[in-house]
């Protein structure tokens, strides 16, 4: 039986410092790109809470108007209870008479800085947005950074 002799090779005992540093740089670059994109995605996912609540409230107010020929009994509140939500607070007030109204959704918590409105004519507007989301007022409901509707 013949013995095969291999050249004296060092046994690999782990990663070199250079390999670890390169891995850390790659992870850092990926995190620098992914974290802001994820944050913007989470913020965008919370916006429909406000826009759907405003649209639903407008429909309910129009039904109320069909029955009562006005939008409410006091200037401080419309004829219906305002919706509640975890990311927005809602208000509904007259704009001069009981024949006009303005429903507003103001962001709270992580959505602070967003303000959406709708009136009796169905005019949608974004009256406030955080930095990077456009320049308010905008005559639509902003749903993406840069003021996109």
Rg for CA atoms: 28 Å
Average residue-wise pLDDT: 89
Give a count of the beta strands, DSSP E runs of length 2 or more: 4
Structural class assignment: alpha+beta
Proportion of helical residues: 25-40%
N-to-C terminal Cα separation, in Å?
Answer: 80 Å
Order of helices and strands: HEEEE
Spatial sequence of strands, sheet with the most strands: 1-2-3-4
Uncertain segments: none
Strand content: 15-25%
Outline type? rod-shaped
Give the helix tally.
1
The biggest beta sheet reads:
4 strands, antiparallel
Main location: membrane
Organism: Herminiimonas glaciei
Protein name: Type IV pilin protein
Membrane topology: Single-pass membrane protein
Your description of this structure?
The protein is an alpha+beta fold and 149 residues long. Helices cover 35% and strands 16% of the residues. The chain has one helix and four strands; from the N terminus they run αββββ. It has a four-stranded antiparallel β-sheet with strand order 1-2-3-4, with helices on one face. The termini are far apart. The relative contact order is 0.11. The mean pLDDT is 89.
Summary tags:
149 residues; alpha+beta; Bac_GSPG_pilin; transmembrane helix
List strands and helices in order, with pairings.
Layout: H1 17-68, E1 88-94, E2 101-107, E3 115-119, E4 124-128
Antiparallel strand pairs: 1-2, 2-3, 3-4
């Amino acid at each position: 039986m013949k013995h095969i002799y291999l050249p004296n090779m060092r046994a690999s005992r782990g990663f070199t410092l250079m390999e670890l540093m390169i891995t850390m740089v790659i992870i850092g670059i990926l995190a620098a790109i992914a974290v802001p994109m994820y944050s913007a995605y989470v913020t965008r996912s919370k916006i429909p809470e406000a826009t759907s609540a405003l649209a639903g409230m407008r429909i309910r107010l129009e039904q109320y108007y069909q029955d009562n020929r006005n939008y409410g009994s006091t200037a401080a509140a419309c004829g219906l209870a305002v919706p509640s939500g975890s990311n927005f607070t809602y208000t509904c007030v007259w704009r001069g008479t009981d024949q006009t109204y303005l429903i507003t959704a103001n962001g709270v918590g992580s959505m602070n800085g967003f303000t959406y409105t709708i009136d009796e004519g169905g005019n949608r507007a974004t009256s406030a947005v955080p930095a990077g989301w456009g320049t308010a007022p905008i005559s639509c409901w902003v749903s993406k950074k840069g003021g996109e509707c």
